[in-house]
Design brief:
Pfam families: Chloroa_b-bind (PF00504). By secondary structure, the protein is mainly α. The protein has one domain (about 1-95, about 130-165). About 55% of the residues lie in helices and about 5% in strands. It has a two-stranded antiparallel sheet with strand order 1-2. A hairpin with a 2-residue loop joins strand 1 and strand 2 (about 70). The mean pLDDT is about 85.
């Protein structure tokens, strides 16, 4: 991290690059990603996504619905996409809006970044609502997303199918909620 700060002082001053703050925000996004995956699975298993397998048409949606090669996204994917756009807007507002709650995406003038946690987050302080617990949970969420995406790519199954198999069929096949 010190080499990055020496090479790119302006970026490092605001917390961009390999910093604790960047890792924390990436972990938050990964945790939200898991919430979105599980929420999509629950909504799909209960039929809460109307006409999920129906493709959108160019006449009604224009270029927004195109995937390329004259194919169009389904209604289910459009609903999920808008939910993610909403999450992105909320994240941008939290990052660059007024700092009411005390944690920003970037380092404020004069703010010093936390000391790095190292390869393993120390066990002391990783329980409850602590910064160390958030870091440990964020790292596990990031590793989990990587594992699910790799498993999906290797097996050729959808991400929801992989997560359903990982939950013993309780997400899509036999919904628990």
């Amino acid at each position: 991290m010190s080499q990055f700060a020496a090479d790119y002082p302006w970026l490092a001053k605001y917390g961009f690059g390999p910093t604790v703050k960047a890792e924390r925000w990436n972990g938050r996004h990964a945790m939200f990603g898991w919430l979105a995956i599980l929420g999509t699975g629950v909504a799909k298993s209960h039929g809460w996504l109307p006409s999920g397998d129906v493709a959108l048409t160019y006449n009604e949606w224009g270029g927004l619905a195109q995937q390329g090669f004259n194919t169009y996204i389904t209604n289910e994917r459009a609903i999920i996409m808008i939910a993610h756009v909403h999450a992105l807007a909320v994240s941008a507002a939290a990052a660059f809006g007024p700092q009411v709650l005390g944690d920003s995406l970037t380092l404020l003038d004069g703010e010093k970044d936390e000391d790095p946690y190292g390869l393993f987050v120390p066990l002391k302080g990783t329980f409850g609502l602590t910064p160390a617990a958030e870091m440990a949970n964020g790292r596990m969420a990031m590793m989990g997303i990587i594992a699910v995406v790799l498993t999906s790519a290797i097996s050729g199954k959808d991400i929801l199918e992989v997560v359903d198999i990982g939950t013993g069929g309780n997400l899509l096949t036999h919904p628990m909620f």
